[in-house]
Amino acid sequence: MEASHAPTLHTANVSRRTTMNRVFAVVYAMAIMALLYRHALTLHLHSTTVSSFFIYLCLLISDLVLAFMWTMLQSIRMRPVYRKEFPENIKKLVRESEFPALDVFICTADPYKEPPMRVVNTALSVMAYDYPTEKVSLYVSDDGGSAPTLFALMEAAKFASHWLPFCRKNNVAERCPDAYFAANHFSSSSDSETHKIKILYESMKVKVENVVERGKVGEEYIVHERDLQAFSKWNTPEFTRHEHPTVIQVILDSSRDKDITGHVMPNLIYVSREKSRTSSHHFKAGALNVLLRVSAAMTNAPVVLTLDCDMYSNDPQTPLRVLCYLSDKNLRPELGYVQFPQRFPGINKNDIYACEVKNIFQITAVGMDGLAGPSYYGTGCLFSRRVFCCGPSAFVPPEIPRLHPESVVEKPIQSPEVLKLAHNVAGYNYEKQTHWGFKIGMRYGSLVEDYFTGYRLQCEGWNSIFCNPERAAFYGDAPISLVDVLNQHKRWAIGLHEVALSKYCPVTYGTQAMGPPMGFAYGYYAFSSTLLIPITVYAFLPQLALFNGITIFPKVSDPWFLLYAFLFVGAYGQDLLDFLVHGGTVQRWWNDQRMWLIRGLSCFWFGSTEYFLKSLGIYTHGFNVTSKVLDDEQRKRYEQEVFEFGVQSPMFVPLTVAAFANFGAFFGGILGVFRGSNDLEELLVQIFIAGFGMLNSWPVYHGLLMRGDKGGVPIKITLISMVLAFFVTLAFSFFCEFSLS
Ligand SMILES: O=c1ccn([C@@H]2O[C@H](COP(=O)(O)OP(=O)(O)O[C@H]3O[C@H](CO)[C@@H](O)[C@H](O)[C@H]3O)[C@@H](O)[C@H]2O)c(=O)[nH]1
Ligand SMILES: [Mn+2]
Fold it and tell me: Could you tell me the sign of the dihedral formed by the alpha carbons of 713, 353, 640, 347, in that order?
């Protein structure tokens, strides 16, 4: 009766580090002021030559960028919040018949980079949610337009009729079959039921992989007339992945299909939107908008879950957990979405490529959760469908009343009217002259459509929640080779540029719409590529100066030295602390900061360049899908925690040049000290920086020395880098000599 007796659905605790963070921010800010003052002094008093002016100016600009980024980063340290949910209580408060229906979207784009068995496992893990089955609908978007993917899903549907009752009956925790069978639940003592289901799974897998390998669905695999009709669409030569009509196939219909125990099955719908070479499809954002409309036409559930094909559900209770927030009307009236972190079980022990991306998926997430809520991470996010129709108090209806978020679908999903509308809204011409991608739906204009969409939704006034249960709600795949990681980050860098330099720049537009803390939190990521300036300057300038015996930092006995030491140790120490508090290890943190430097020298440069080439109309970039195929040999090297260079990527060049430069400067500088031409006290800071650079370049040295191995630095990259390192050093020496005389 009284609200106070109601069982708790969720709690939130503000971090105990909040006060400490704020005090430290004030102290650190003062140190930054002092540093800028010193820069002004040096530039004024000591830049007597062109070269020294150039050096001090570079250092000043670098430190200004660092100070700017530091300022924005503070927003996420002001009020981190940790939440907990109690899904066991939800059924005490909300009757099961009142649970909202759930539409799940799964995106896939390429059957060779994203094996259909991976998609199948994701789909099965969600179909087996502990949630009223008739309320769950799955929509798989296939941008690869691939018949084998459709085939795989049809096979998955058959397998599901065994798998879902099996999970229910045995209360299986891992509902992703691959994860379940890999977890070694049964060795010798495996009972016959488990054994049978495993055989069923294996035979499906063999069939699907066979079809994928052949690239088409052989007639021997098609049993039903209905399936024959579906696959006949691929039988025309005009059907290619870039040019084809819409394919919508209802694989499971909950009003009709039952599992082997007679229980209903969820809806399962395959969607491959219409494609044409002449119009733009907006990559994943476009795919999701098609799913938003197709699902509105067919089921129009008020809650929508978006997943990438490589993110399977690891916890069948997840929808109940989300209901704890969605059903609490007092929490945040403008609650738009609940985001889960991306977690990756396959990363190696010390996470050499920092694929955990802890800074984004955990530290920033709890930081923003204490403000207006986290950004959208593209996958593992449950939305209220209403958010896609503009702000909480500024409703922009979709152009067709039947797509209205509150409209109720009364016709069965396979009725001609419903199918006709679904096909209509999946066409590439449909969005012309509509608000899709600009005012409603997922937002276009950035390769990080997730970040951009979350940002725009929050600017419109929606709030979000970060939900980070102990048992991961979703598990995904992270890239396991360096070039894949760098390409992924390069794509993100391009996408972030597209936001930073648009009229929606978080620092201007965002701070106006949401206030400075949220604007800065988004701004930190939007402007992350500017870090290429300080990272590059600190990777080369002190080293080149050291090589030439030029002192550019205060000597150890100078009181200013303490300021530098404090700034360095303070920033690194706080970063380490944040990392450890969120379950990291020192080793992982070291690798994370190393990847940050590596990205600064590669992804940020190449991403920025590609962005500018594109804005000049010289070059177009697309969404380069990350490969999820796991090569055994590669995985073995990855497990040994050895960096994988192997391919001739230009992004390795700056890393290799930096490795040479730091090596040369470090030993050159020390040699100078022994010879007596260098003063140790004056050059200690630079020797330290070069040493630090060398420590961070360790994987590159290793890659240079094991060139025989497939993962070594290719000889061409080595030679180019050597020549470059040589010329840069020479040019710098000339520059100094020339301007001194
Ligand atoms: O034209 C496209 C391109 C991609 N995708 C899908 O987008 C997803 C993400 O692609 P992936 O190559 O795995 O990119 P990641 O870098 O791993 O993804 C991160 O970054 C993306 C933005 O760049 C977000 O969309 C993702 O959710 C986020 O996990 C995959 O399911 C793809 O199938 C499409 O559906 N259509
Ligand atoms: Mn991915």
Answer: negative
